[in-house]
Write a structure and sequence with these properties.
Oligomer: single chain
Shape: globular
Distance between the termini: 9 Å
Structural class: alpha+beta
Number of strands: 27
Number of helices: 12
Strand content: 25-35%
Length: 587
C-alpha cells in the first residue's frame, strides 16, 4: 500500500491494469460561512503595543491596523456608513475604535457610529463608523492616502489548563542565594494557532490575511527574557509614575513594578497565528550562527542543565543549515528577512511545539534532553520535533495555507521533511524506522468507518479547526507525500518544492497550487500518459476518506492466463460492514 510502502508495485504490465479515477470537487469552505470574514478589506500592517499586568492577570493593548480595500467593497450602497469586520475573542473589551484617513495635506478621524457588535459564537466584531462609503472611496483612490483602524482594548491573561492566547507558564526555581529554597517563576507565553491571536489583539485572524507587524512590549524591567518574532530594536526604561509592571518573583515574594519598553524590528509578511511573545525569566545559551548568519539561541528554565540547551542549539543549527542547503530547499532562512531564530523550552505547553516565525516555542521536556544520558528514543524525538518546527519556517510560515482545510500542506510536509532532515543530520539515529511505524499506525485510524479525509471541509468554527490537527492530517498527509516522493524521486521533488516556495513566498497557497507545480516538474517515463498523474494520485488520497483493499484473483483452470483485480475501501470490521463501490485509488 502506497501510504507506507511507496507507490504500489504489481508485477503486471500497465495494459493489464485499467483503473479510472473518480472526479472529485475541491473541498473549499463557503465564503458565506458565518465564521468567515469578508475579504474585501484586508490588513496590510499592524503596529501593536501590549502592556501586561502579570500579578493581576490582565493586559491592555493599543494597535494601529493599516487597511487595504478592494474595489468590490464599494459596489454596495455608497451612501451607507463605512463598516468592517474582524475577529475579537469574547473576553477582549473594546474600549475605543476610530478610523483614520492619513493624507499628505490633512488627516481625518471618524468615531464609531454605535458600539461595536461582537458575536461571541463566531468571534467576529462588526464596526460601523460615522462616515459614508462614498467619502472613503473618494479619498482612498488618492495614492497619498492611507487608511488606519485604531483600537484600544483590555483583556485577560489565560492560564492553568487554558494554554492558548497569552497565558501563564510557571516553573519552580531554586534560589542559589537563600539556602536553596524554591519559588515559583511566573512567565507569560503565547500560543495562537489556530485561532487564539484574536484573544490578544483584534485582528483578521485567518491565515490568508497576511501582514507585517511592529510589536512593542511594556514588560517588567527585571524580566530577563522579553521575546517576540523579530530581533530587539531598542529597550528603554519607563517612568514609574506613568507605567507600572507589577511582577512578584523570588523566594521572598518581592513585587517589583518598574517597566521597560521593548521595541522589536518589523516582521516579515505573515499570518496572525504565527505571532509570538514570551515575557519572564529564563536562562539562555550563547549565540551560534547558521551558515546564512542567522543568530540562534535556546532559552530554558533554570532548573535544566545548560548542557541540555546547548545540545538542542547544536541540533537546531545543523537542521537549519540542512534545510537552507542547495540540495534541499535552496532558500536560506535569512531570506525571510528575519535575522534570528530563537528556541525556548517552556513548562506549560499544550502541543509538543509551535513554529512561530523566528521564535519557536517547545514543551521543555521535548526540547531539553541530555546528549549523554537520555534514551535514544528521546534524542530521536528531540531531533524530529526540531526538524518539524524548522521545516515550518518554509512550509507554513514562508508559504501559508489559504485556509485551514489545507493544513495538511503545513503538517504533512513538515512531518515528512522532519524525517528527511533528521536522517541528513544524524543518519545513525535511523529515524526512518520511526517514520514507517508512524505510517503503519495511522492505518488503524484511517481504517475506521468514521475517519475523515486529509483535506477537510471547515466552516471556520474554532473548535472544528482545532480538531483538524490529528493523525490523518499529520501522518497520512506525510504518507501522501511519501508516495509522491517515491514516484518523483527526492531530487525531483525537492526542486519542485523549491519552485513552489519561491512562487508563493510570503503568500498563501492551496493543494491545487502545489499539485500544479508537482505535475509540471514530474518527468515520469516521458509519455503523455504521465501528464497530470501527480494530481491524480494526490487527489485520490487527500479528498477521500480511508484507503483501499486491493484484491487479485487468479483462475488456474482458465484456458488463458488472466487475473481479476478489484478494489474497495478497507475498514476494520471487514467489507460487509462498509460497501463503497465509488472509491477508486490511483495505484
Amino acid at each position: 500500500y502506497s501510504l507506507y510502502k511507496g507507490h504500489l508495485c504489481m508485477m503486471f504490465s500497465k495494459q493489464l491494469i485499467l483503473l479510472s479515477l473518480v472526479a472529485y470537487l475541491q473541498c473549499h469552505p463557503s465564503s458565506s460561512s458565518s465564521f468567515r470574514l469578508p475579504t474585501a478589506i484586508r490588513p496590510k500592517h499592524y503596529s501593536l503595543t501590549l502592556h501586561p499586568n502579570i500579578d493581576n492577570g490582565t493586559f491592555i493593548g493599543t494597535e494601529w491596523i493599516e487597511l487595504e480595500i478592494d474595489a468590490s467593497y464599494f459596489d454596495a450602497d455608497l451612501s451607507s456608513n463605512f463598516n468592517l469586520s474582524l475577529n475579537i475573542y469574547p473576553t477582549v473589551s473594546l474600549n475605543t475604535a476610530s478610523l483614520h484617513i492619513n493624507r499628505t495635506s490633512n488627516n481625518s478621524v471618524y468615531a464609531l457610529e454605535s458600539p461595536a457588535s461582537v458575536n461571541s459564537t463566531t468571534e467576529i466584531a462588526s464596526l460601523t463608523f460615522a462616515v459614508s462609503k462614498q467619502t472613503i472611496r473618494d479619498v482612498y483612490n488618492d495614492t497619498n492616502t492611507a487608511l488606519h483602524l485604531y483600537v484600544e482594548y483590555s483583556a485577560l491573561i489565560r492560564g492553568d489548563d487554558d494554554m492558548a492566547g497569552l497565558y501563564y507558564s510557571r516553573y519552580q526555581r531554586i534560589d542559589d542565594d537563600d539556602d536553596g529554597r524554591s519559588y515559583t517563576v511566573t512567565n507569560l507565553v503565547t500560543q495562537f494557532q489556530p485561532t487564539a491571536a484574536r484573544s490578544v489583539f483584534p485582528c483578521f485572524d485567518e491565515p490568508d490575511f497576511k501582514a507585517t507587524f511592529d510589536i512593542i512590549l511594556i514588560a517588567p524591567a527585571n524580566a530577563t527574557t522579553v521575546l517576540s518574532n523579530a530581533a530587539v530594536a531598542s529597550r528603554t526604561s519607563l517612568d514609574e509614575d506613568t507605567y507600572q509592571c507589577p511582577w512578584t518573583i523570588g523566594s521572598d515574594n518581592t513585587t517589583l513594578t518598574p517597566c521597560v519598553r521593548v521595541t522589536f524590528e518589523r516582521t516579515p509578511i505573515m499570518s496572525t497565528y504565527l505571532v509570538a511573545i514570551v515575557i519572564g525569566s529564563y536562562n539562555v545559551t550563547d549565540v551560534q550562527l547558521s551558515h546564512d548568519n542567522t543568530t540562534q539561541r535556546v532559552y530554558y528554565p533554570s532548573i535544566f542543565d545548560a548542557s541540555r540547551a546547548q545540545f538542542a542549539l547544536d541540533q537546531s543549527v545543523r537542521v537549519l543549515n540542512a534545510f537552507g542547503d542547495a540540495s534541499v530547499f535552496n532558500i536560506p532562512y535569512a531570506d525571510s528577512g528575519l535575522s534570528k531564530l530563537d528556541s525556548i523550552g517552556v513548562s506549560d505547553f499544550a502541543a509538543g511545539a509551535m513554529e512561530n516565525y523566528g521564535l519557536v516555542i517547545y514543551r521543555s521536556s521535548r526540547l531539553l534532553v541530555d546528549r549523554e544520558s537520555s534514551s535514544q528514543n528521546a534524542k530521536s524525538q528531540q531531533l524530529l520535533i526540531i526538524a518539524h518546527e524548522l521545516a515550518h519556517q518554509w512550509f507554513g510560515n514562508l508559504v501559508s495555507p489559504q485556509w485551514w482545510d489545507d493544513i495538511w500542506l503545513n503538517e504533512g510536509y513538515a512531518t515528512f521533511m522532519s524525517y528527511y532532515a533528521a536522517t541528513l543530520v544524524e543518519s545513525e539515529y535511523q529515524v526512518n524506522d520511526l517514520k514507517y511505524a508512524a505510517l503503519s499506525n495511522v492505518l488503524l485510524d484511517d481504517a475506521s468507518v468514521y475517519t475523515e479525509a486529509v483535506k477537510k471541509t471547515l466552516s471556520g468554527d474554532p473548535a472544528e479547526i482545532r480538531a483538524a490537527f490529528n493523525s490523518i492530517t499529520y501522518q497520512k498527509g506525510m504518507g501522501v507525500i511519501n508516495t509522491i516522493a517515491n514516484m518523483m524521486g527526492m531530487h525531483e521533488l525537492l526542486r519542485a518544492i523549491e519552485t513552489y516556495l519561491r512562487q508563493y513566498a510570503f503568500g498563501t497557497a492551496n493543494s491545487s497550487a502545489l499539485a500544479t507545480v508537482l505535475d509540471a516538474a514530474y518527468t515520469g517515463d516521458g509519455n503523455d500518459s504521465d501528464e497530470g498523474v501527480i494530481s491524480e494520485v494526490m487527489d485520490a488520497y487527500i479528498l477521500q476518506s480511508g484507503f483501499p483493499l486491493i484484491s487479485v484473483v487468479f483462475d488456474a483452470d482458465a484456458e488463458e492466463d488472466w487475473v481479476e483485480i478489484t478494489q474497495q475501501r478497507f475498514v476494520k470490521f471487514g467489507a460487509r460492514f462498509y460497501e463503497d463501490e465509488t472509491m477508486v485509488e490511483q495505484v
